[in-house]
Amino acid sequence: MLSKYRYRWLLNRLRHQPSWLEECNPDLITEYSKATGAKVMYRLNNYPKCPQLNRDLGKLVQHKFLARKRSYLYDLNGFMVSPRATYVYRPTPVAANTITWVDRE
User: Fold this and answer.
1) What is the pTM of this model?
2) Is residue 39 within 8 Å of residue 52, measured between CB atoms?
3) Helical spans, DSSP H, in the chain
4) CA distance 25 to 47
């Protein structure tokens, strides 16, 4: 799948998300791999990881379509889990409210 179509899929997925979205969200990784055919690897703690998804999210941050911040992960007892930190994303106002070059055919 071409990068433009992957970017379009990600932007449409994030536009319908009410809050920040974690890059290690298993549902997002599963949906992304089914839609794009990207490879999924599993970490030692059975969490999926998709390098192509991380690259695409990084590229959308570079183009100022997404905002990114660091989030730390804790279990119910207050201890940090693996991975200790991850990024969370949301669309910028420009990407959320206008048609971008990614949306055009």
Assistant:
1) 0.81
2) yes
3) 3-15, 26-36, 51-62, 93-97
4) 9
Q: What angle do helix axes 26-36 and 51-62 make, rounded to 10 degrees?
A: 90
Pairing state between β 41-42 and 48-49: antiparallel
Question: Is 85:32 a contact under the CB 8 Å cutoff?
Answer: no
> pLDDT (tens digit, 9 = 90+) per residue, 19-33?
888 888 888 899 999
Q: Collapsing DSSP states into helix, strand and coil, what is residue 29?
A: helix
Is 81 in contact with 63 (CB distance < 8 Å)?
A: no
pLDDT, tens only, 4-17: 888 888 888 888 88
Of 102, 105, 83, 84, the closest CA to residue 92 belongs to 102
How far apart CA 97 and CA 11 sit, in angstroms, is 11
How far is it, in rounded angstroms, from Cα 21 to Cα 6?
A: 17
